[in-house]
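B., you asked whether I could sanity-check this one before it goes into the benchmark set. Here's the sequence:
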Amino acid sequence: MNDTYYQPQTSRTSDAAAESIPSPDGHSNLINTDYTIGQDNITSGFWGLKVDLHSQVFAWSSLVILAFVTITLALPDVMGPFFGGIRSYLTSNLSWAFMLSTNVFVVLAIVLIFSPLGRVRLGGTKATPDFSYPGWFAMLFAAGMGVGLMFYCVSEPLTYFNDLRSGTTGPLGQQLSTDEDAKALGMAATIFHWGMHPWATYAIIALALALFSFNKGLPLTMRSVFYPILGERVWGWPGHVVDVLAVFATLFGLATSLGLGASQASAGLNALFGVPNTSTTMVLLVLGITAVTLVSVIAGVEKGVRRVSQVNMMLAIVLMLFVLVMGPTLLIVTGAADNLMNYLQELPVLANPFGREDDAFIHGWTAFYWAWWISWSPFVGMFIARVSRGRTVREFLIAVLLVPTLVSVIWMSTFGETALWQLSQGYEGANNAALELQLFAMLKELPLASITSLVGIVLVMVFFITSSDSGSLVIDSITSGGKVSSPRTQRIFWVMVEAAIAIALLLGGGLTALQAAVLITGVPFMLVVLTSGYSVVQGLRSEPRV
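And here's what the prediction gave me:
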């Protein structure tokens, strides 16, 4: 084994020169390559702005995205039905593939936890963690949870409950005779979409990125994960395609979150202040959220991302604790434990992709969720990889799978149990409200409704600002050839592109278009994640263990 570290060379032609990847401590099995970070980059300035861009990845990513935005905005009447058709086709024909893939990710993660490969340490045999357990756990959760927590924490439990009581469109195609049974299965299905399956997807990508960067000495970019398969060809067109797919997946995943957040914030403003809940309001919200995100980007990682993340976590905890205390506290506490057990009990059935009779549930919910999580995996995986150096594979996988899953159980139980309790007491507000309004309708039945609803609106926006800030950093890293740092104007460009995609999708089909976009990008990137699983096993087999 090598005690030395292959340090990828970097181009220093811009003020924001690339930072080197931390050297492994102790033994690691390095990959020797002649590739230098930034060797294919364009570093000349445009209109006085300095750039440091990978010539092929940036060009193809930006051109295809800008063409998509232009066509969608120019032909909304055509693109709306197109998005509806493509969403229906993909969910009807590929739901099984999304479900089977995420099952593979979960099984692979569990096998690695209990196998000798779990004793490999990320960053070398003597590497030490950069963060304490509490700090690391907080960042793991903050990395992958976003607007969806706010959008679906009330609507999902209520929808499943009603479907299970009234017909066969609910989880598992069942019609349950008691409210208690419907609540139990509905909450289990909710947690299923926010539990181990999505986090296993993140874990595999994050583990692959960390392994091939911190242990193998390759650039922190998606193409590096394919080195065991492609060899030196990974620096050519095959690698360009992988990185472009990662950019597409991240951009459309973030744009979907921004669109959902804008629609929910618009509904909240309408309920609180009578602001018209129209496409114009949503577009203005997208522009406003983007403006704040740009301020965070310009402030930099330390002043921008860190402070916004702290505000995000603080507001989320305050809102959850408020609902816990002011809602049915005992029911929430006992319900969380019951929901966890029900989730584990129903997990094999809910995860089974074959022979199901609940097509409406699978096509309308599970397939979209799995595609959404997969589309988020490049940027969330890269963030998790960056903060997990020094952890063993076993320690890493246990934390990434279990900690966020438990937090999801607590969050969904707090809001879901409260909404279901209100319904059982005859309060129909949340149950009768539109999807994007259900959270605010639930809060309306609790004290200080105006204040908590305003906090909810702010939290929706802050959740996206945090995700967009981190996501633009990752996209910029990929499109600059794996450089950790590059001119800030490039991140500003990608934040604006996210906004343009979100606006185009909102005007070109609304929620259906947002979901279709995630499905379209999720299909090819599903194959990328599956291949990453193979590469992880191959890479770990050659690593020394502690």
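One thing to flag: Residues 49-541 form a domain with the Amino acid/polyamine transporter I fold (CATH 1.20.1740). Otherwise nothing jumped out at me.
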